[in-house]
Automatic annotation (TrEMBL):
Region (Disordered): 1-53
Highest taxon above the source species: Bacteria
The protein, known as: Lipopolysaccharide assembly LapA domain-containing protein
Keyword Thylakoid listed: no
Lipopolysaccharide assembly protein A domain segment(s): 79-127
Composition-biased stretches (Low complexity): 34-49
InterPro entries: LapA_dom
Stretches with biased composition (Pro residues): 21-33
Transmembrane segments: 57-78, 98-121
Keywords, alphabetical: Cell membrane, Membrane, Transmembrane, Transmembrane helix
Length: 132
């Protein structure tokens, strides 16, 4: 039984060496990227063989992402059903562990949104004042 050798690359290097080697320097000029944009400043048409992004495609990807997060959340809640005792200032009680963690997560998200909104508002006012 004979072992078949893979074809040699154009430079005579094996595949790993060819990938690591710098591209050959020829007399060809570099590609021009200064092509004028279509009227209105729109983006040039997509390359042949590629599909442009659409709002529908973005929504579809978002729905699948949300479905994945929802499934993970359901699994998390079903696996963490044990009760824990919660004490917050004068409030005392028991909750399922998953519910307590989700309430803490939502509280953290809300706090982050409030601080982020305040910072964005601050920056917008600064930009508005500088523009005069």
């Amino acid at each position: 039984m004979s072992v078949r050798q893979p074809p040699a690359t154009p430079t005579g290097l094996d595949t790993a060496e060819a990938a690591a080697a710098p591209p050959p320097q020829g007399d060809a000029p570099p590609p021009q990227h200064d092509a004028p944009l279509p009227q209105g400043g729109a983006q040039p048409p997509a390359k042949a063989g590629t599909v442009p992004r659409t709002r529908t495609g973005t929504v579809w990807a978002g729905i699948w992402t949300a479905a994945g997060v929802f499934v993970a959340l359901m699994v998390f809640m079903l696996q963490n059903t044990g009760d824990v005792e919660i004490s917050f200032f004068a409030l005392h009680g028991t909750l399922p562990l998953a519910m307590a963690l989700l309430i803490a997560m939502v509280g953290g998200i809300l706090l982050t949104l409030v601080v982020g909104t305040a910072r964005i508002t601050q920056l917008r006012r600064l930009v508005h004042r500088r523009r005069g």
